[in-house]
Amino acid sequence: MSATVEFAKMNGLGNKILVVDMRGRADKVTPSAAIALNAASDTQFDQIMAIHDPKAAGTDAWIDILNSDGTKAQACGNGTRCVVQALASETGKRVFTFQTVAGILNAVEHEDGTISVDMGKPVFDWDKIPLAEEFHDTSRIELQIGPIDNPVLHSPSVASMGNPHAIFWVDRDPMSFDLGRFGPLLENHPMFPERANITLAQVISPSSITTRTWERGAGLTLACGSAACATAVSAARTGRTGREVAVKVASSPNQGVLTIEWRERDGHVIMTGPAEWEWSGTLDPSTGAWSRDAAPGAEAR
Asked: Can you give the pTM of this predicted structure?
């Protein structure tokens, strides 16, 4: 078996993704390889989407997802769009079904190049998100950062989109908060036994939200698709918006937008947005050593 596999450096609204082709192999991208890849500026990423041979009939692939700290992730909406674009370019197919540890994901590439991913149903039960304490109503839980009589952030909505999310509602630009300081504290708060993605969300109108996310296992990220979904359903659930919203990601290049629809007929969340290929190369999934394809001046690492 060759030591190296092909990979593509891609992004979804700036969310940095490595799509790694592990088909036809029994091994996996190791946590140490992920950490090594993230340590190099050219291959720094938010998630690795490792494409493996399908495990279940009727699916196109098994997707193994790793965070930049080498830990496993259950879901990555922006990464899934990147996988769709990569496989659509290779195969000419437009419709895909993937299996992940979080379940089955159906996706389609549209004529205009945007990609829709069915992210499944949100989960609001406190013990399934999960939380460390019982809350009957997870649309608003008791959690805050800052002085008790004047907290900086408080009373988040919590939900799971295959991974745990806490959404703090703010009344000004999410970029004006020091999320780089608050994010690690909240991600690792005892309330979240499996850690959590932390999002600041400003509702602009009944159909528009601006967000910024500290991503579990990755830190400050330019975009997070599952966080956009969790924010949209939590906004609708609390009466802040309708069931279809444009989620503008404040930290992404050009403040990119995802369209999120929380379908009333079946409760599924449909995320639609772009994906972008940047460059391709090969890497060793056991060590993270890599090289860029036909790129002048690129060096093997």
From this structure: 0.90
Strand 257-262 to strand 244-249: parallel, antiparallel, or no bridges (unpaired)? Answer: antiparallel
Count Cα neighbours of 127 within 13 Å in the Cβ-side half-sphere. 2
- Give the residue, 27 or 300, on which the prediction is more confident: 27
Q: CA-based angle 192:119:81, to the nearest 5? A: 110
User: Per the structure block, which two tokens stand in for 255?
Assistant: 């403040």
Q: Please say whether the beta carbons of 99 and 59 come within 8 A.
A: yes
Please list the active-site residues: 76, 224
Could you tell me the domains of the chain? 5-120+276-292 (3.10.310.10), 144-267 (3.10.310.10)
Supply 70's token pair: 């080498």
DSSP-derived pairing of the beta strands 15-21 and 47-52 = parallel
Whether 113 has a pLDDT exceeding 90, the answer reads yes
In this predicted structure, which of 27-31, 249-253, 259-263 has the lowest mean pLDDT? 249-253
